[in-house]
Write a structure and sequence with these properties.
Radius of gyration: 19 Å
Distance between the termini: 50 Å
Strand order of the largest sheet: 2-3-1-4-5
Strand content: 25-35%
Number of strands: 7
Shape: elongated
Order of helices and strands: EHEEHEEEEHH
Largest sheet: 5 strands, antiparallel
CATH topology: Alpha-Beta Plaits
């Protein structure tokens, strides 16, 4: 099952999606399609959305039983110890986007220090 949410997109794209999915409210589409059709729909959405935003959530076999894709949004999907989360932009985070954070987490540093001790 997939849920596709569109904001500020062309009407042609909305009409195109209704061939495969059911529009339950303006800009929100739901349906049951194969993974091949899902990937082709996502490629088409990314190609035609222009200045709009698109988010697709679909069911998969993982711990969360879902996965998602985001296009044209400031919110970025991140992997947090095997769990996929969405990172909301904050003014401080936006400022740091130019600077790449390189290095290890504190937990990783403690683990390495503990190993070096023995």
């Amino acid at each position: 099952m997939i849920v596709l949410s569109l904001n500020n997109c062309p009407n042609a794209l909305r009409g195109d999606l209704t061939k495969w999915l059911l529009e339950i409210t303006p800009g929100v589409y739901v349906g049951q399609v194969s993974s091949r059709v899902r990937d082709n729909l996502w490629d088409r959405v990314c190609e035609l959305v222009k200045n709009g935003k698109a988010t697709m959530v679909y069911s998969t076999r993982n711990e969360q039983h879902l996965d998602f894709r985001v296009h044209g949004s400031d919110w970025e999907p991140i992997d947090f110890e095997g769990i996929k989360l969405v990172l909301r932009p904050s003014p401080a985070r936006v400022k740091k986007l130019g600077e790449m954070r390189l290095g290890y987490s504190k937990a990783s540093k403690y683990r390495k220090a503990k190993r070096m001790k023995y």
